[in-house]
Structures are given as C-alpha cells and as structure tokens.
Design goal:
With 241 residues, the chain is α/β, with parallel strands linked by helices. 46% of the residues lie in helices and 18% in strands. The strands form two sheets. A four-stranded parallel beta sheet has the order 2-1-3-4, with helices on both faces. A four-stranded parallel beta sheet has the order 6-5-7-8, sandwiched between helices.
Length: 241
C-alpha cells in the first residue's frame, strides 16, 4: 500500500487541529498527517498580529515538511478570511514553487465547497474579536455571500480558542441555525467544531463546514483518496465531490 503523506501547517499555539486531523484520518490507514508549526499567538488586526502570517514565515515551515516528502501541504488556518482570500492564493503558489507538494488551505477549500454547493446565505461561527469577525463578514459579503447570522466569542489569544467548550460551540451553532442559513461555517482551526458536525447536521438539517475538516477534504481530493471513506464527519465528506 502506497503511503499518502499529508503536511499540515499549524499555528504554534493551536492544540486542537492536530488530534482532530489525525482522528479524521483513522479510516484511511495509508494516509497520515505530519505537522509543521510557525509562530501565531494572537488574532487581531494590529500590524504585529497580521505580520504573523507573512508568507516567508509560512513557506519556511512548509519547506521543513518537504523533508518528509509530503505530497500535499495544507494550511490549516483561517487567516485569509480576514486578510483577504488572495493571501491564501499567493501562499499556495509560494508553497508549490518552493516544494514539490500540492498546496491547499482551509479557507480556499471552504470557498470551493460553497461554489460547488451553491450556498450563498451563510451562518458564521468563530471565537474571534469584534473587529476580526467584522472583517470576515466584509470579505464574504464582498464576494457575493450574505451572512444571515453570526456568533463570535470576542477572544484574541489564539490558545484561548481551544478552551471554548463543546457545549458553548454547540449553543453558538444553534444560535445561527435559527436564521435558516443555507450553510454554517465554523471559522477557526483551534475550535472543536468538527466532532460536532455529524450530530448537529442531523438535528438541524443544515450543512456545517468546519475549517479543520475542509482542508482535510481538499487534501483528500488532491491525493485522489475518496473522501467518502472518512465516515462520521458530516455531509461534506459524503456529498461534496
């Protein structure tokens, strides 16, 4: 069996996406995730916080994953949702020119999924501050989407996002679901959203796209693995091809 090696770029203060990503891949024994960190501690719109996502720093981490011969390198982060989607397009081009891997990101995968499914009326859930949430909403609205409901936690410290409980996140998702969006986005890879998706989709009847899951979905596509093999993680893996 040929191994499939997935490189996943990770914020340094993140404690959620690594175990969740590995758990998602348990039904695909030939695939494994290998993580590379770069410094991210605070999510805000200040110059210092934005500088954490400078392309050279991210590419440097990607180049280390090249040593492990990863076929795909995915940025499991949501920075382009507030920086602007073009920042992820540029990042993918830089990774692919600096390594032999294909590149993908959580947010570009979300946008591809929305295009494939035709969902335009969205609910948005994040742990971010007022200003970051507003920037995300602006970017999606400028791209032609309508954010019909949103909930956010008002946090800036990246580590603190991992301490948002499953119960709190469940309540936030149900809160935006009341507006009957066509899809709900969980925008942060340091939230435990992915394990909630299957149950909440069954209860609410609304597709939920979690940013940890979306980069895994895209990585599966790029490596030719049938995403339907990832069972119990929601409609994304069953229905979006």
């Amino acid at each position: 069996m040929q191994r499939v090696l997935l490189g996943i770029l990770t914020p340094s203060s993140n404690t959620v996406l690594e175990p969740v990503t590995s758990e998602m891949l348990k039904d695909v024994p030939e695939a494994s995730a290998h993580f590379g960190r770069f410094a991210v501690t605070r999510i805000a719109l200040s110059e210092g916080a934005l500088a954490q996502f400078a392309t050279p720093e991210v590419v440097k981490a990607a180049e280390l994953l090249e040593h492990a011969k990863c076929q795909v390198i995915g940025w499991s982060g949501t920075s382009s949702s507030w920086l602007g989607f073009d920042s992820d397009i540029r990042l993918c081009k830089s990774i692919e020119s600096s390594t032999s891997a294909r590149a993908c990101t959580s947010v570009l995968a979300i946008n591809e999924i929305l295009h494939k499914t035709g969902a335009r009326r969205l609910g948005l859930v994040s742990p971010y501050s007022d200003e970051v949430q507003a920037a995300i909403i602006d970017n999606y609205q400028n791209a032609g989407y309508e954010i019909v409901a949103e909930q956010h936690s008002g946090l800036e410290d990246n580590y603190s996002f991992s301490e948002v409980t499953s119960s709190q996140l469940d309540s936030m998702i149900r809160g935006v679901a009341a507006a009957k969006p066509e899809a709900i986005l969980i925008m942060c890879t340091n939230l435990r959203g992915a394990p909630l998706v299957h149950r909440l989709e069954e209860e609410l009847g609304i597709p939920i796209y979690d940013s940890v899951a979306t980069v895994v979905w895209k990585a599966m596509q790029l490596t030719g693995i049938d995403s339907r093999r990832l069972k119990g993680w929601g409609s994304l893996f069953r229905e979006v091809v």
